[in-house]
Amino acid sequence: MKGWKSRIGTSALGMAGALAISIPNAVAATSYSSDVCTSSRNAYCFSLHFNSRGTQTWYSDSPCFVSNQDVPSHYGYSPNQATLVLYVFGTGQISGSAATCVLSNEGDGQQVKNNAASGSNGECSATHRVYFNSGYSGPSQAFLPNCGDYWPAENLVSGLKNENASADRY
Question: Poorest-confidence range of 17-21, 134-138, 144-148?
Answer without folding.
Answer: 17-21
